[in-house]
């Protein structure tokens, strides 16, 4: 590693340390349903607090598009962080302005403060110079511990490192080391599974991914966009029809690169997005117009598991179905368990990453049986592609 870490941070008692963490955790009815991302940033927060720093946490939650949205407040998350770290976590209702300044001024050495969602301001995603300056005004030192948001060149993930002495947190360091160790020189065949819901932000990544892997399994909401691009009617399924052209060009690129594409051949359909909704398995070419595909069916699971059996390396981001609501967790759980058993036998190196993907692996009971579980989804895929990650690059430049 060629960046500064917490080992380089000495004499920080009473210093105001702005720590970028990723608290974009899965929630239901305001409660955190998977705390892995919080647990992973605890070592950095604790270490800084024990060294007497005033620890000021910066984070985003959801995609509020530059304006305050009540459901995307970090306030409930502050309580979850407090429970896990077992220390008071103060909260300020804005990440800049009077609310932030007053809360920071009131901190004692070792105190922890979480500032409200940085994405409540347009300047965050624009990496706006003035906004970054106002964020920096509350800190003496900047620590980035949000590897999973390092693919974003935002004010709190990249901009701040230009204005303050910048360091990598323990999780940032550990994620990069673990990914390099597991996937630095992967054994072939390499199989990638990409599913989930963030179709528009991840589809472009697949253009390069197909050049690097031997097979790409496409599931979840992502699969519907590819199926629709091939002229299949996906009914009311989550699908981004305007990405059909992109999807088709990825399929062409895969053919050129000799990468096998594995799309669902059957799907579990329902008419409501809720637990226990009436459901049935249909051929992928027979999705009724008023139904949505919420999971892949048994034939598709078998095809995916065939590839997992052939793989020596597996990378996985995005669940194969809406795993949070039973019974649409079946495919994700079945494939996760197969991957875990091959990993345990020593036949497979398996790395899964993503906020909901970690939650899915925990749900399947396999998080400890895979080679590595990363908190990063989009950042992990970009790292796989070999793309520079702005949040990591700027730390390297500081050494
Ligand atoms: N067929 C489907 N229809 C609707 N939603 C789906 C379907 N398949 C999966 N999903 C949803 O996808 C979501 C997870 O997708 P996402 O792309 O956010 O993955 P992730 O692991 O959280 O990655 P990241 O960390 O980049 O956010 C889950 O909430 C799941 O319910
Ligand atoms: O969940 C994630 O992958 C990170 O928190 C980044 O979120 P984003 O995709 O909304 O930038």
Automatic annotation (TrEMBL):
Positions bound to (2R)-3-phosphoglycerate: 37, 119, 152
The family this protein is said to belong to: Belongs to the phosphoglycerate kinase family.
Main location, first listed in the record: cytoplasm
Record keywords: ATP-binding, Cytoplasm, Glycolysis, Kinase, Nucleotide-binding, Transferase
Signal peptide range: none
Functional pathway: Carbohydrate degradation; glycolysis; pyruvate from D-glyceraldehyde 3-phosphate: step 2/5
E.C. number: 2.7.2.3
GO cellular-component term (any): cytosol
Pfam families tied to this protein: PGK
Name of the protein this chain belongs to: Phosphoglycerate kinase
Record: residues binding substrate: 22-24, 37, 60-63, 119, 152
Catalytic activity annotation: (2R)-3-phosphoglycerate + ATP = (2R)-3-phospho-glyceroyl phosphate + ADP
Any single GO BP term: glycolytic process
Keyword Transferase found: yes
Localization of this protein: Cytoplasm
Binding site for ATP: 202, 324, 354-357
InterPro entries for this protein: Phosphoglycerate_kinase, Phosphoglycerate_kinase_CS, Phosphoglycerate_kinase_N, Phosphoglycerate_kinase_sf
Subunit-structure text: Monomer.
A molecular-function term among this protein's GO annotations: ADP binding
Organism whose genome encodes this protein: Rhizobium quercicola
């Amino acid at each position: 590693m060629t960046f500064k870490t917490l080992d380089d941070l000495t004499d920080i008692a009473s210093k105001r340390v702005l720590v970028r963490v990723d608290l974009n955790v899965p929630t239901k009815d305001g409660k955190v349903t998977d705390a892995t991302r919080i647990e992973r940033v605890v070592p950095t927060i604790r270490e800084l607090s024990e060294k007497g720093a005033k620890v000021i946490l910066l984070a985003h939650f959801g995609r509020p598009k530059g304006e305050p949205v009540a459901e995307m407040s970090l306030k409930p998350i502050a309580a979850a962080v407090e429970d896990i770290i077992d220390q008071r976590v103060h909260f300020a209702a804005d990440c800049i302005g009077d609310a932030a300044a007053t809360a920071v001024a009131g901190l004692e050495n070792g105190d922890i403060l979480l500032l409200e969602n940085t994405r409540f301001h347009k300047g965050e995603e624009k990496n706006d110079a003035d906004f970054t300056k106002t964020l920096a005004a509350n800190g003496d030192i900047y620590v980035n511990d949000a590897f999973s948001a390092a693919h974003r060149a935002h004010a709190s993930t990249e901009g701040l490192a230009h204005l303050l002495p910048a360091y990598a947190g323990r999780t940032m360091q550990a994620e990069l080391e673990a990914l390099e160790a597991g996937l630095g020189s992967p054994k072939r065949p390499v199989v990638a599974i990409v599913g989930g819901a963030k179709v528009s932000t991840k589809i472009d990544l697949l253009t390069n991914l197909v050049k690097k892997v031997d097979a790409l399994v496409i599931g979840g909401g992502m699969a519907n966009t590819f199926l629709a691009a091939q002229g299949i009617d996906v009914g009311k399924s989550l699908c981004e029809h305007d990405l059909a052209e992109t999807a088709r060009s990825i399929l062409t690129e895969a053919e050129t690169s000799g990468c096998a594409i594995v799309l669902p051949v059957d799907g579990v359909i329902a008419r409501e997005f809720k637990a226990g909704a009436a459901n049935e398995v249909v051929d992928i070419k027979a999705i009724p117009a008023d139904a949505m595909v919420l999971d892949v069916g048994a034939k598709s699971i078998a095809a995916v598991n065939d590839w997992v059996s052939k793989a020596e390396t597996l990378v996985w981001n995005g669940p194969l179905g809406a795993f949070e609501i039973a019974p649409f967790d079946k495919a994700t759980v079945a494939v996760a368990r197969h991957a875990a058993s091959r990993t345990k036998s020593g036949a497979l190196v398996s790395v899964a990453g993503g906020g909901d993907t970690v939650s899915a692996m925990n749900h399947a009971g396999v998080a400890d049986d895979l080679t590595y579980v990363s908190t990063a989804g989009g950042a992990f895929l970009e790292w796989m592609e070999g793309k520079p990650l702005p949040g990591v690059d700027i730390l390297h430049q500081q050494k």
